[in-house]
Specification:
6-stranded antiparallel beta sheet; about 250 residues; alpha+beta; Creatine Amidinohydrolase; 4-stranded antiparallel beta sheet
């Protein structure tokens, strides 16, 4: 069942979104070549708690970190580690906050240090634009399928591949709520759900340069990587449905 948020609940999520955007803005200058992803995660947690919030991801059973920090062919769910960031690494920062009993979620991908290849910039711009386009379809009386269809069209026309089996989702009191929002048309029941005012979604564009297929990373309980070793990226924003459109919280 897709939950409908009232104005008080939406206000709590809005405040959480403001905090999360501040955390990301303050975290990005800290991320530099030569530091470990573990140190990035520690900094993120300090920032989150400094604003009186809690890391959403630490409420996922078995996950003890504030962030997921995939690099290059790692797609999602990669825990922080002693791995040192290098110039040109394609890093995804995926982070969520829990504030006033509600979650908000946010992710972006970018190159650490200098951009090494214009092809990577085009790849990243495609994901950003796909997310912006998809959010335009979030309004009352539309259906979830239109969001998925938009993402799929944007990614495919640029020659890239939506990662199958990874989706966006509803969000609120729980980090992951109904519905699942795939980046492609899959014919699921969720995709026929009608969008209504008060719904809140974490819209995710999860894609790769060379394949739609993923696999578990060897030796890593959480991390998923591209099946062919090609670069992957993720762009995510939390939105709430208003009278005529979507209000972006993160």
């Amino acid at each position: 069942m897709i939950t409908i948020k009232n104005q008080q609940e939406i206000e709590s999520m809005r405040k959480g979104g403001v905090l999360l955007k501040k955390v990301m803005a303050e975290l990005l200058p800290f991320v530099k070549p030569g530091i470990s992803t573990k140190s990035v995660d520690k900094r993120a947690e300090v920032l989150i708690r400094g604003y009186g919030a809690e890391p959403s991801f630490q409420k996922v059973k078995g996950y003890q970190w504030a962030t997921c920090l995939p690099i290059n062919d790692q797609i999602v769910h990669t825990p922080p580690s002693e791995r040192i960031l290098k110039i040109g690494d394609l890093l995804t920062i995926d982070i969520g906050v829990y504030y006033q009993s509600y979650h908000t979620d946010y992710a972006l991908s970018y190159c650490v240090g200098e951009m090494s290849d214009k092809k990577i910039q085009i790849f990243l711009d495609t994901g950003k634009n796909a997310l912006e386009q998809a959010i335009m379809y979030i309004r009352p009386k539309n259906i979830i399928k239109q969001i998925s269809q938009s993402i799929e069209k944007s990614i495919k026309k640029s020659g890239y591949h939506v990662i199958k089996n990874l989706t966006g989702h509803g969000i609120g009191k729980k980090l992951h709520e109904d519905p699942l929002i795939a980046g492609y048309v899959d014919g699921s029941t969720d995709q026929m759900s009608v969008i209504e005012k008060g719904m809140a979604f974490a819209i995710e564009v999860i894609y790769a340069m060379g394949t739609s297929q993923m696999k578990s990373e060897v030796g890593n309980k959480w991390s998923l990587v591209t099946a062919d070793g090609s670069l992957a990226a993720c762009f995510e924003k939390t939105v709430v449905v208003e009278e005529n459109n979507a209000h972006i919280l993160t």
